[in-house]
Write a structure and sequence with these properties.
By secondary structure, the protein is mainly beta. The chain has three helices and 14 strands. The protein is globular and about 45 Å long.
Length: 190
């Protein structure tokens, strides 16, 4: 075997990451794409080797999620936000990805279930997560007939994990996760 080095190009092998996740595993996306990380692109594959998602970090340090037509998963996004009076709130949005189509599965504020519309204003504070190039609040607003005007809020960092449920493997602290289902539509794990 011959080894050929391309001397003229400075290439960082840590800029791209391919990960195959199995049922029951958790992947904390936010820690992989922290500000100090050189990682720019991550491709997530299911146990069959099919790519289900690509996550790219842009120059603004935003994580942009692209889901393939094979993607059957959930993404849990936990945002540290503030209400109008400046009180800290913990906001969680669970998006269901079914063959690449996105719907809202669950939303909470300070661990209490709320209507997704209540989270819409708080999601406008998120600048870190994009889905198919769109801001999180715009993705959520697509599920409502009436869109509310956008207010500028201070930038807050969100956190993500990717989870493939099913094998009973131990999880990690959940910030944002993706849960993969089998093509039969039967969800494994959480």
């Amino acid at each position: 075997m011959d080894l050929i080095l391309d001397i003229g190009k400075n290439r960082n092998i840590h800029q791209n990451l391919n990960i195959k996740i199995k049922p029951g595993q958790t992947l904390e996306v936010s820690s992989l794409f922290n500000k100090k990380s050189e990682l720019e692109r991550e491709k997530i594959y299911n146990e069959k080797g099919q790519r289900i998602a690509t996550i790219e970090k842009n120059e603004k340090q935003q994580r942009n999620y692209f889901f393939t037509k094979f993607a059957i998963c959930c993404i849990v996004i936990i945002l540290d936000t503030e209400d109008e009076s400046g009180k800290d709130l913990n906001c969680t949005v669970v998006l269901d990805i079914n063959f690449g189509k996105i719907s809202i599965e669950k939303s909470t504020i300070n661990s209490k279930n709320v209507e997704p519309k209540e989270v819409l204003e708080l999601a406008k504070q998120n600048k870190a997560v994009l889905i198919k190039g769109k801001a999180l609040h715009k993705v959520l607003a697509e599920h409502f007939i009436k869109q509310t005007p956008c207010e500028e809020k201070k930038s807050t960092q969100s956190h993500e994990n990717i989870v493939v449920p099913g094998s009973g493997a131990p999880g990690s602290a959940i910030d944002e996760e993706i849960t993969v289902e089998h093509p039969s539509g039967k969800q494994q794990g959480r």
